[in-house]
Amino acid sequence: MSAIPAAEDRIRRSLEARIETNQLELPLLPTSVAQVLELCYSPDASAAKLSEVIHRDQALASHLLRVANSPAYFPGTAIVSLQQAISRLGQRTIGEIAVALSVKGLVFNERRFQSEMRSLWRQSAASGAFAREIARTMRRSVDTALLCGLLQNVGKPAVIHLVTKVADTVGREVDNEEALELAEEYHTEVGARMVEGWSMPPAVIETTRYHHHYADAPTYPDEARVVHLSDRLAENLLSPQNVTEEMLRAELAFAELNLYPEDVDAILAKGDDVRKFVEVIG
């Protein structure tokens, strides 16, 4: 009976050692997506230049146009070119969608955990959409809100991948429940290091690290509160048996952000729009 706990402890200690020594072998963003991200935050970038970079990846370009023409963005008329999409939706929105599409294929792809990866990705997409809606409700800039919400749990699939590799070294196959528990425990630090390696904006890095302990965020505590709430809203939408509306409305972060019950009502009313975004981005 003691062999299994001993193996579990070895997996945990080995995982912690890799995190401590930064031996994580985290995935890198494709060059084209890294360039898109840099351009979408550059005041000097043009729609033509951004379109040119995106066109280097035809699969990404095609998927971006499909997303831009989806009900999630309510186009009045069909968008037929990337430059038109950038002009209609804005450079940052297009850049953030490009990152989202890339991250899905890059990180949420552990074959042995396909069902878990799909659930994690859908929650990430919903979190991103809700973070944007919270920012709008607060009448604050929505810049980076989508990315902050979308990437807050990006460390979970990365930890699951690490756990399976570590388990191989101790000669035991880790079960799905144990892998998910370890992912929950260690994803914030691993995720923060990942997005830092991707040269994400500082708010994205900090909210990834502190969204579960938003009061500890040194520079962006309100953004961390928004991201924490976006995660809870996403879970309420997709798994209401885990986070009921009563539990959601009791979240202190709403009051800390000066959001009133009617504001929460308005955010919850965006549920159908969020579902549309989840379906098209997934």
Automatic annotation (TrEMBL):
InterPro entries the UniProt entry points to: HDOD (IPR013976), RNase_Y/CdgJ (IPR052340)
Domain called HDOD: residue spans: 26-214
Name of the protein described by the UniProt record: HDOD domain-containing protein
Organism per entry: Eiseniibacteriota bacterium
